[in-house]
Design brief:
The two termini are 32 Å apart. By secondary structure, the protein is of the alpha+beta class. Strands 7-8-9-10-11-6-12 form a 7-stranded mixed beta sheet, with helices on both faces. It is 38% helix and 28% strand.
């Protein structure tokens, strides 16, 4: 989805998946995907790749805690490891997002109830090929507003194109999606997929910013209708955006999946 923005590349060797990308002119590798016993060899191969590309700075991004522990004991390079709070994933209990029960969700529950009081005809629909054109209209409107506010933000163009590409191939990706319809018009949508046996991950959520409560409605309805059988919902990172951080923290995550970066010089 983000390959055009970050120049993502991947390769498979000896049953190890290697993924690398580039941001702001800096080449970076993700943690290789493999069986635990192959991690030291995967680190060595990644370092060789950097050197073959003429890179003296070996940079890893988006790392989980178990992998930095492997880097810390790797004998042939000394890595400087730092926390990457902006890319840590927010994880919630699915039932918390569905029920919004208790004092800590009192404001959220009232906000959702007010939405249905203001818009009693609003209904939830699963995303199908029939409503994708209307979801695209929400998307176009959302980005027109954001680009007016941030005309120099290149990421907005890449993100919009990436979401359109997902819609172009929605069935092929085996995603689940949901939308809120109001008066026959889509005002919000979201999509995601099952990450493992007990967790679903939400990749995208967009809503008409002029309709108060639209985000609350798609957030609750999507989980209730598509992911009620999951224990956890991973709503990904906040990218260091203060408004997004406040919104994600306000839904009371039960944990953050910490992410780290690591740099070494060879």
């Amino acid at each position: 989805m983000w390959r055009n923005w970050s120049n993502t590349r991947w390769a498979i060797d000896d049953d190890i998946i290697y993924i690398c990308a580039e941001w702001n002119g800096k080449f970076s590798a993700f943690q290789p995907l493999c069986e635990p016993e192959k991690i030291p060899a995967a680190i060595s191969k990644t370092i060789e790749m950097f050197q073959a590309c003429g890179q003296n700075e070996i940079r890893f991004s988006g790392l989980e805690k178990f992998f930095i522990e492997e880097l810390a004991k790797y004998p042939d390079a000394e890595f400087e490891i730092s926390s990457d709070r902006d890319n840590s994933d927010y994880v919630y209990l699915a039932q918390d997002l569905i029920n919004l029960s208790g004092r800590k969700f009192h404001g959220k529950k009232n906000h959702l109830n007010q939405f249905y009081k203001d818009y009693p005809t609003a209904e939830y629909l699963p995303i199908t090929c029939e409503i994708i054109p209307q979801c695209r209209e929400v998307l176009i409107n959302w980005y027109e507003i954001r680009r007016a506010e941030n005309p120099n933000d290149e990421f907005l163009y890449y993100e919009q194109a990436a979401i359109h590409e997902i819609f172009d191939n929605f069935d092929d990706f085996k995603l689940k999606g949901g939308a809120i319809s109001l008066g026959g018009k889509i005002i919000a949508f979201s999509y995601g997929e099952q990450l493992n046996s007990d967790t679903a991950v939400i990749h995208v959520e967009k809503a008409d910013p002029e309709i108060r409560g639209a985000y609350a409605a798609i957030n609750q309805n999507f989980i209730a209708n598509e992911w009620a059988n999951m224990t956890y919902i991973n709503r990904e990172e906040d990218m260091g955006l203060e408004g997004l951080r406040q919104a994600k923290e306000s839904y009371r995550p039960v944990k953050l999946i910490e992410k780290f970066s690591a740099v070494a010089f060879k």
